Amino acid sequence: MHWHGLSMAVSPFSDGTPAASQWPIPPYHYFDYELETVIGMAGTYFYHSHIGFQAVTAAGPLTVVDAGDVPYDYDDERIIAISDVFNKTDDQIESGLQANPFVWSGETANVLINGKGQLPGNPVSPDCELASIDVEPDTTYRFRFIGGTALSFVTLAFEDHDVMTLIEADGGYTKPVNVSYLQIGSGQRFSVLFRTKSRRELADKRQFFMQVETRDRPSLTRSYAVLKYKVPNDDEETTQSTPLTPPLTLLPTTLGWLDYKLESLLPDPDFPPTSSVNRRITIRTHMLIANNTVVWTQDNTPWFETFPTEPYLVSLYKNDSLEFPSFARAIANDGIDPLTRAFPAQIGEVIEIIIQNTGSDVGTLDLHPFHGHGSHYWDLGSGNGTYDWVANEEKIRGVQLARRDTTMLYKYAESTEKAADMGWRAWRLRVSEPGVWMVHCHILQHMIMGMQTVWVYGNESEIMTVPVNDIQGYLRYGGSVYGNESYDPSPVHFKGSSSRKRKL
For residues 1 and 48, is the Cβ–Cβ distance under 8 A? Predict the structure, then answer.
């Protein structure tokens, strides 16, 4: 189980990434996760499985509340979690994506809001409900949006409610930005302040639609939820019929939405200036189509859950099946150690990670929400073509960049030449949390098809700070840190960044 957006640096075996930081939880077993949330982490998150296609259903919202004063005033809050469903089982989808010949999952059958929705094309579907977002008049709400979709990149807006004020992105407060619609990719989270209408403004209307549409896919899927006003002596039932005609005309994808506009609420003294950047590492994404298979590669290398045969962090502690990633080999190979298929980085260095979109073997392009595990990065924006750090420096000059964990790599055309550069996303990161972390596209299909990378921050002494004899339960599949109905687990309690531990 991955705690999306939360840094698990304190508990290195608990990031939930099989074959990277820990073994998966065996069937009929459980694993206790310990989360340490520090000042500055208040915000909107979620949790999900990190195995195969399980996250399409094995997921849920998670909020970290402020310990002190909240920087924005609001009366109440609502969670609006977005997910999607498909007309195949998880096993069918996963096996098809890895099969020869390749079998696509199919497009999104429906977009759900808080797990509810009517079937597209059917105004009323038996046994299906529209989600109701209940509000009261003259009230300011914090709407927490969670992009928990497998595939869908969506845009959404509310009928007859034109202004929302965005105040949070990916678990970090931002300066207020007024928006009339949201674009949300898989893994992204946003909070907005939403001011409801007065009783007088409502007149006789009590219910309004929230309209959600997918973008940048071969077909459009449209879904709805109901914004329902609760007023005294009004027991009107929530409508369960979707409109025959969409009440809103939603915009096509806004390329670079909020880039260079979304700023951190407070100045960040840790932001590293351009002059401190030690390396720029470009990850070139490419769809390889050959011999009836389709694979996503990064720098000509795919990454699957089956590689390596045991989690990186476990191998590093056991010093058996995988040697420690070589920084020298990585420097000679554009940042990746080809032997271990990992990207090593040194604690204290400042790096820029550039994710470069390229034309597939047949010239097609796709959109990707890229997510970074571990510490959040400063998002440097995006653009068409190839990243030019000198030109981009002028765009970010004077901008109080927000720290993010999931941002969009857009597609700027439907097709281009094979392997041609066509769009980039850039991050800046001060490497500070020793451990094994992942950077990957958050579309589940693409992950299964190889669109994942592993990063190793720190050297042996910085990563392996706990005596190996104390963590034997983590080093074996189904080890003593996993419990079941017959016995309780025997975990290790990690405390603080120095990874001091004590047995429980």
Answer: yes
